[in-house]
Protein backbone atom coordinates (compact mmCIF):
# COMPACT_ATOMS: atom_id res chain seq x y z
CA UNK A 1 0.00 0.00 0.00
CA UNK A 2 1.27 3.47 -0.90
CA UNK A 3 1.64 5.93 1.96
CA UNK A 4 -0.69 8.92 1.51
CA UNK A 5 -1.16 12.01 3.64
CA UNK A 6 -3.74 14.77 3.38
CA UNK A 7 -2.27 17.97 1.94
CA UNK A 8 -4.78 20.19 3.80
CA UNK A 9 -2.97 22.14 6.53
CA UNK A 10 -3.88 20.98 10.06
CA UNK A 11 -5.46 17.76 8.78
CA UNK A 12 -3.64 14.82 10.35
CA UNK A 13 -5.13 12.00 8.28
CA UNK A 14 -2.73 9.53 6.68
CA UNK A 15 -3.15 6.00 5.35
CA UNK A 16 -1.47 4.80 8.55
CA UNK A 17 -3.44 6.83 11.11
CA UNK A 18 -6.74 6.48 9.22
CA UNK A 19 -6.54 3.39 6.99
CA UNK A 20 -10.33 3.32 6.50
CA UNK A 21 -10.42 6.81 4.92
CA UNK A 22 -10.39 7.45 1.19
CA UNK A 23 -7.70 9.71 -0.27
CA UNK A 24 -8.41 11.62 -3.47
CA UNK A 25 -5.63 12.77 -5.81
CA UNK A 26 -5.42 16.51 -6.27
CA UNK A 27 -6.00 17.19 -10.00
CA UNK A 28 -3.04 17.60 -12.32
CA UNK A 29 -4.85 20.20 -14.43
CA UNK A 30 -3.02 23.43 -13.42
CA UNK A 31 -6.18 25.55 -12.99
CA UNK A 32 -8.08 22.97 -10.94
CA UNK A 33 -5.00 22.04 -8.91
CA UNK A 34 -4.37 25.68 -8.03
CA UNK A 35 -8.04 26.15 -7.05
CA UNK A 36 -8.07 23.03 -4.82
CA UNK A 37 -4.85 24.00 -3.08
CA UNK A 38 -6.03 27.56 -2.51
CA UNK A 39 -9.32 26.29 -1.07
CA UNK A 40 -7.25 24.23 1.35
CA UNK A 41 -5.09 27.28 2.13
CA UNK A 42 -2.00 25.59 0.78
CA UNK A 43 0.38 27.66 -1.36
CA UNK A 44 0.24 26.11 -4.86
CA UNK A 45 3.82 27.25 -5.54
CA UNK A 46 5.13 25.21 -2.61
CA UNK A 47 4.14 21.93 -4.30
CA UNK A 48 5.70 20.94 -7.61
CA UNK A 49 3.24 20.52 -10.48
CA UNK A 50 4.14 16.86 -11.06
CA UNK A 51 3.99 15.87 -7.36
CA UNK A 52 1.08 13.57 -6.59
CA UNK A 53 -0.68 14.89 -3.47
CA UNK A 54 -3.94 13.85 -1.85
CA UNK A 55 -6.88 15.15 0.15
CA UNK A 56 -8.80 12.86 2.45
CA UNK A 57 -12.53 12.23 2.27
CA UNK A 58 -13.16 14.55 5.24
CA UNK A 59 -12.94 17.53 2.88
CA UNK A 60 -15.61 16.33 0.45
CA UNK A 61 -19.25 15.36 0.45
CA UNK A 62 -18.46 11.94 -0.95
CA UNK A 63 -22.04 11.01 -1.83
CA UNK A 64 -22.49 14.15 -3.95
CA UNK A 65 -18.92 14.64 -5.19
CA UNK A 66 -18.44 11.13 -6.60
CA UNK A 67 -19.99 9.34 -9.52
CA UNK A 68 -19.90 5.79 -8.18
CA UNK A 69 -20.06 6.17 -4.39
CA UNK A 70 -22.71 3.49 -3.78
CA UNK A 71 -21.03 1.00 -6.12
CA UNK A 72 -17.72 1.60 -4.34
CA UNK A 73 -19.26 1.23 -0.86
CA UNK A 74 -21.06 -1.97 -1.89
CA UNK A 75 -17.84 -3.42 -3.33
CA UNK A 76 -18.82 -3.35 -7.01
CA UNK A 77 -16.04 -0.89 -7.87
CA UNK A 78 -12.39 -0.91 -6.83
CA UNK A 79 -11.83 2.76 -7.58
CA UNK A 80 -13.87 5.79 -6.55
CA UNK A 81 -14.51 8.34 -9.30
CA UNK A 82 -14.86 12.04 -8.54
CA UNK A 83 -17.33 14.13 -10.50
CA UNK A 84 -15.69 16.68 -12.81
CA UNK A 85 -17.11 19.62 -10.87
CA UNK A 86 -16.15 18.25 -7.43
CA UNK A 87 -14.13 20.53 -5.17
CA UNK A 88 -13.17 20.22 -1.51
CA UNK A 89 -15.59 22.17 0.67
CA UNK A 90 -15.14 20.95 4.24
CA UNK A 91 -12.26 22.26 6.30
CA UNK A 92 -13.33 21.69 9.91
CA UNK A 93 -9.79 20.64 10.81
CA UNK A 94 -8.70 24.27 10.43
CA UNK A 95 -9.41 26.11 13.67
CA UNK A 96 -10.34 29.50 12.18
CA UNK A 97 -12.80 27.95 9.73
CA UNK A 98 -14.44 25.83 12.40
CA UNK A 99 -15.47 28.86 14.44
CA UNK A 100 -16.76 30.78 11.41
CA UNK A 101 -18.65 27.90 9.85
CA UNK A 102 -20.56 26.15 12.63
CA UNK A 103 -22.52 23.08 11.71
CA UNK A 104 -26.10 24.34 11.62
CA UNK A 105 -27.60 20.86 11.91
CA UNK A 106 -28.19 20.47 15.67
CA UNK A 107 -29.40 24.04 16.23
CA UNK A 108 -31.91 23.65 13.41
CA UNK A 109 -33.11 20.38 14.92
CA UNK A 110 -33.58 22.10 18.27
CA UNK A 111 -35.58 24.84 16.56
CA UNK A 112 -37.95 22.30 14.98
CA UNK A 113 -38.27 20.38 18.24
CA UNK A 114 -39.23 23.57 20.09
CA UNK A 115 -41.66 24.44 17.31
CA UNK A 116 -43.31 21.01 17.61
CA UNK A 117 -43.58 21.37 21.39
CA UNK A 118 -45.16 24.82 21.00
CA UNK A 119 -47.69 23.52 18.47
CA UNK A 120 -48.63 20.55 20.65
CA UNK A 121 -48.90 22.74 23.76
CA UNK A 122 -51.09 25.26 21.95
CA UNK A 123 -53.30 22.47 20.59
CA UNK A 124 -53.70 20.90 24.02
CA UNK A 125 -54.55 24.30 25.50
CA UNK A 126 -57.18 24.91 22.80
CA UNK A 127 -58.46 21.38 23.16
CA UNK A 128 -59.22 21.87 26.83
CA UNK A 129 -61.11 25.15 26.23
CA UNK A 130 -63.20 24.24 23.16
CA UNK A 131 -66.36 22.26 22.64
CA UNK A 132 -66.22 18.70 21.36
CA UNK A 133 -67.21 19.75 17.78
CA UNK A 134 -64.55 22.46 17.67
CA UNK A 135 -62.07 20.00 19.10
CA UNK A 136 -62.67 17.53 16.27
CA UNK A 137 -62.16 20.29 13.68
CA UNK A 138 -58.91 21.33 15.35
CA UNK A 139 -57.71 17.72 15.54
CA UNK A 140 -58.28 17.24 11.79
CA UNK A 141 -56.25 20.37 11.09
CA UNK A 142 -53.45 19.40 13.49
CA UNK A 143 -53.04 15.90 12.10
CA UNK A 144 -52.20 17.31 8.69
CA UNK A 145 -49.28 19.45 9.83
CA UNK A 146 -46.18 18.15 8.11
CA UNK A 147 -42.73 19.38 9.07
CA UNK A 148 -39.75 19.77 6.73
CA UNK A 149 -38.22 16.45 7.76
CA UNK A 150 -41.40 14.58 6.92
CA UNK A 151 -42.62 14.16 10.49
CA UNK A 152 -46.36 14.17 11.00
CA UNK A 153 -47.69 15.42 14.31
CA UNK A 154 -50.45 13.38 15.90
CA UNK A 155 -52.29 14.54 19.00
CA UNK A 156 -53.43 11.86 21.39
CA UNK A 157 -57.04 12.39 22.46
CA UNK A 158 -57.12 12.81 26.22
CA UNK A 159 -60.37 12.08 28.04
UniProtKB/TrEMBL annotation:
<keyword id="KW-0863">Zinc-finger</keyword>
<keyword id="KW-0862">Zinc</keyword>
<dbReference type="GO" id="GO:0008270">
    <property type="term" value="F:zinc ion binding"/>
</dbReference>
<keyword id="KW-0479">Metal-binding</keyword>
<feature type="domain" description="THAP-type">
    <location>
        <begin position="1"/>
        <end position="91"/>
    </location>
</feature>
<dbReference type="GO" id="GO:0003677">
    <property type="term" value="F:DNA binding"/>
</dbReference>
<protein>
    <recommendedName>
        <fullName>THAP-type domain-containing protein</fullName>
    </recommendedName>
</protein>
<keyword id="KW-0238">DNA-binding</keyword>
<dbReference type="Pfam" id="PF05485">
    <property type="entry name" value="THAP"/>
</dbReference>
<dbReference type="InterPro" id="IPR006612">
    <property type="entry name" value="THAP_Znf"/>
</dbReference>
Amino acid sequence: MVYKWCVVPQCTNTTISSPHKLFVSVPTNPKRRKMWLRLARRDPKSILAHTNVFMCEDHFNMEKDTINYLKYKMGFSQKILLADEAVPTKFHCQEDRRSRLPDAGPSREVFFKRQRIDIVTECLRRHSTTTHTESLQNDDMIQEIIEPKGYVIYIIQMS
